[in-house]
Specification:
The chain folds into two domains: 123 residues, Rossmann fold; 166 residues, NAD(P)-binding Rossmann-like Domain (Rossmann fold), CATH 3.40.50. Helices cover 38% and strands 17% of the residues. The chain is built from twelve helices and twelve strands. The structure holds nicotinamide-adenine-dinucleotide (NAD). Nicotinamide-adenine-dinucleotide binds next to α5 and α6.
Length: 307
């Protein structure tokens, strides 16, 4: 059984060593294609691979057609829009991602963003503390729950809204209070941390009215997706409320306009960096290898995305 790791942008050595340990420990062969510069190299390398681990590498229909023995592709990371799912499914190839492996990295960034804004973006002047403030978590998934726990550890009161989590024990275990509606969440949160996925329901759903309902001096923190924001609504709310702040890991289309109009009250990272930690990359690589072994040994398809 041959497991190919094909990474244009390689994993850290520690991750490769760990992947090798898992793969060879299971009695399989590891093959590495790193820093490849030409698609032809990938087409050649996949020809006899039974399994494929990738990062942001593109697995097109052409790659799948060239991979005659391929049974499983694992994207080490959360997003998998770099894999042609239809082509894989047509061949009966299982595609997985490694959800949750970068959640801590994103959650730490969300907390850091709150403090950065509370301390005037680390410029001189009197800031404020996050301890004692109310933190609202919009969606209590992998990232949201870590932000909730860290918020509690920082001495914040934590509220959450996630209509898809019906087990109250999930929130109780973290000392987090649930609220009945999105409206209530925003109305009560000094810091609102967004963790909803971009879906038909959530796209453009965070805008003027919710922002206007937030307490005085509130900050909206977005490490989720830019699509969930109604950008014009955000701009209007920031214009009408001089106390509101916005910080994001995913710059909106009107970022230049927001910077010009609102100066230090808005901030966007230069490039999405929520998951960009050495630990997240290593965790994702190791998880990918373990999932492949579990698939071949036990038929486990828990993280399959093309069911
Ligand atoms: P997840 O799938 O673990 O959790 C998402 C949660 O959203 C689930 O609990 C679900 O019940 C909830 N949800 C879905 N629709 C909802 C709705 N309409 N209202 C309220 N809750 C809703 O995802 P995650 O790993 O926690 O990631 C959350 C977001 O963060 C995603 O949008 C993801 O793309 C983004 N993300 C960003 C980075 C980054 O680098 N900044 C990295 C990873 C993930």
């Amino acid at each position: 059984m041959k497991i190919l790791v094909a990474t244009e942008k390689p994993f850290a050595k520690k991750a490769v060593d760990g992947i090798r340990g898992i793969v060879e420990g299971a009695g399989y062969e590891l093959s590495l294609l790193e820093k490849y510069t030409d698609k032809a190299q990938l087409l050649e390398a996949v020809a006899d691979a039974d399994a494929l681990i990738i990062r942001s590498d593109k697995v097109t229909a052409e790659v799948i057609a060239a991979a005659k023995n391929l049974k499983i592709v694992v994207r080490a990371g959360a997003g998998y829009d770099n894999v042609d799912l239809a082509a894989a499914t047509a061949r009966g190839i299982v595609v997985m991602n490694t959800p949750g492996q970068n959640s801590n990295a994103v959650a730490e960034l969300a907390i850091a963003m709150m403090i950065f804004m509370a301390r005037n973006r680390f410029t001189p002047g009197t800031g404020s503390e996050i301890q004692g403030k109310t933190l609202g978590i919009h969606a209590y998934g992998n990232v949201g729950k870590l932000v909730g726990r860290k918020g509690r550890a920082m001495g914040m009161k934590v509220l959450a809204y996630d209509p898809f989590i019906t087990d109250a024990a999930v929130f109780e275990a973290d000392g987090v209070e649930t609220v009945a509606s999105v409206a209530e969440l925003y109305k009560r949160s000094d810091y609102l941390s967004l963790h909803i996925p971009a879906t038909a329901e959530t796209k453009g759903s965070i805008g003027y009215e919710l922002l206007m309902s937030m307490p005085k001096g509130a900050t909206l923190v977005n490490t989720a997706r830019k699509e969930v924001i109604d950008e014009e609504g955000l701009r209007r709310a920031l214009a009408e409320r001089e106390d509101l702040k916005y910080i994001t890991d995913i710059a909106p289309a009107n970022q230049a306009e927001l910077d010009e109009q609102f100066g230090k009250r808005v901030f966007a990272t230069a490039k999405k960096m929520g998951a960009e930690t050495a630990e997240a990359n290593i965790n994702a690589g190791l998880a990918a290898a373990s999932q492949i072994v579990d698939f071949f040994k036990n038929g486990t398809t828990r993280f399959q995305v093309n069911k």
